[in-house]
């Protein structure tokens, strides 16, 4: 009886921690059919988990496909295939819909054996005018406390010492459940799981956090939770935030930051970190709006500042607006980056920080 040799498969991932976790799940599934290898050079087949959040990322993905097509079989999953027609340019790639992938209770091939990435929900409640991820991931579907707790226990028992809770927006977890719940309630249940681990909570949008802020600060006192919050403000101008349909105000953001800093000062908690995101060059952003953003960053001084230039994404409301010139955007980006580096002298000034582990 003849046995056919397994083809070799390489998993390439773009995007957020949720995408990394999806790739861990997919790697385990495809390992039953293929031999998983560590580089595309060894591979016969590439499984590409895509991201649609920025034009820059899309360009990188298209370039990567072009570099390996058609010499290798390419299977594409993830958000980008819901945003653009990849087959128009690369007709022989295989598109697989991963939106119905079961996220919890699955076999995994972990990228890092010490890190357990747990997706607590899919989709979100936001209607941001610029975001294509909502088009790909859909409406909020929160997983139950019991499911998430089981996943945490499995990760800890498997040797994971760092736990990343992730989703499109951790802040709205539980708002779709009956009875309605919230992230503070979830964390309060998780910290009782026994073992050697620490939880890092991923991105939370401000408009939800303010609804349960006292309870969240209380549970963050647990030694099991890293004193790290990622709350994207996106602009220091309320006018721009309304145009973006963000759902929060600058005042909401400042309130969260000030309360967090008061409860977890860096003088006492060395790990105490605030991360936020800014989008530069939104089509309605004026010089006055941008100056408000600079003022906010000077006031708050976040430890991590993720700077992104506005990307017009297909199918979004913002894609219909007249775009600002690249010259304007480039100048504003440099000015904001210089502002950030002015209070972070220890950071290598050649680096331009545009990403956060959770996104």
Class based on secondary structure composition and strand pairing: alpha/beta
In which order are the strands of the major sheet placed?
Answer: 2-1-3-4-5
- Give the name of the CATH superfamily of the largest domain: tm_1862 like domain
Tell me the CATH topology of the largest domain: pyruvate-formate lyase- activating enzyme
Mean pLDDT: 93
What is the CATH class name of the largest domain?
Alpha Beta
Alpha-carbon distance between the two ends: 49 Å
CATH architecture of the largest domain: Alpha-Beta Horseshoe
Structure description:
- The protein is built from 11 helices and 13 strands.
- Helix 10 links the parallel strand 12 (273-280) and strand 13 (304-309).
- The longest helix is centred in the C-terminal third of the chain and has 17 residues, at 326-342.
- The relative contact order is 0.10.
- It is 33% helix and 16% strand.
- The chain has 2 domains: 8-95, 3-Layer(aba) Sandwich (Rossmann fold); 115-342, Alpha-Beta Horseshoe (pyruvate-formate lyase- activating enzyme).
- Helix 5 (183-190) runs parallel beside helix 7 and helix 10 packs parallel to helix 11 (326-342).
- The strands form 4 sheets. A 5-stranded parallel sheet has the order 2-1-3-4-5, with helices on both faces. The chain has a 3-stranded parallel sheet with strand order 6-9-10, sandwiched between helices. A 3-stranded parallel sheet has the order 11-12-13.
- By secondary structure, the protein is an alpha/beta fold.
